[in-house]
Amino acid sequence: MSPTLGTDIAHAAGILRGGGLVAFPTETVYGLGADASSASAVSRVFAVKGRPRAHPLIVHLAAAEQLDAWCESPGDAARALAAAFWPGPLTLIARRAPHVLDDVTGGAPTVGLRVPSHPMAQRLLAAFGDGVAAPSANRFGAVSPTTAAHVVADLGGDVDYILDGGACDVGVESTIVDVSTGTPALLRPGGVAREAIEAVLGRALVLGSSTPAPGTLPSHYAPHARVIAVDAADIAAAVRDAQRPTAVLAPAAVLASITASGSLPDGVTSLALPDDPRAMAHELYAALRDLDGRGLATIVATLPPEAGLGAAVADRLRRAAGPRTVEDDHG
Ligand code: TXA
Ligand code: MG
Questions:
Q1: Across the chain, how many H-helices and E-strands are there?
Q2: Whose CA is nearest to atom 3 of ligand 1?
């Protein structure tokens, strides 16, 4: 069955109310949405994605005012971050309210909450009126979708409706900050720069947390080709040793300099990313999907400097290059 694609918000909200699945655009990536208060709808999300049940889903809300309905005594850090970055590409991990389903949290005492800024996501959440549980709308093993066409390619007829909102602005997933303890922790770099979060908190974020964050396992973002992630200075050596066919994925300025120095061997193709980290994040997943459709054995990718959105890009490239195990790879 071919999926239904459109822009009908009322229809999409009706499908959610009936326990169906709606893929929808956010400013980061497309989400695969279900009524967060329906155990059966949430179960379908796990089934369609092929994702192990223990890996929790983010609950998407229309407005920051709904924070208190979904978590217990959020605390100053949560309130300050919600005020500064919602709506936007930030997910807060907070102690869950009693009504939050184990199906959503994987049994964890915390829940992931986010208010997306994409106008279509905003309209959908407002029309639905309650929390929408949504992981990225990709099948197991694929990078997150940043266009409706990516969702169609990954999930096809398994989703009841796909809201088409064009290409996602940010292009990588939300930043995840755990505010469930007294020490705010960065669980995943993403669309809000770490530096901006630390400026609001007036303190440095610690890395990771005592809670295992399954989505931060190494092979989360793996395309089919083997990815080798290296600093710009090491591209020539990595390309020389890489199994053919090989392509290089690098910022335009880096590609120009390795091409000028003659260190790109014949037969090795290349794909340029923008030099600016924010623009690079916007293009990253479409570029990986493009390269992955070319039947390559190897993609040699350049790690950008880890400031601002560069941290999220470097993180996703490292994961794409990480060791592959089926258990880890839940997309
Ligand atoms: O930008 C995004 O965050 C996108 C859009 C659709 O909102 N969503 C997304 O969802 O990337 P997903 O499921 O692909 O990744 C969410 C990550 C997972 O790694 C999950 O383990 C983690 O968030 N997570 C969710 N709830 C959590 C919790 N209570 N504790 C720790 N980690 C949690
Ligand atoms: Mg995902």
A1: 12, 15
A2: 174
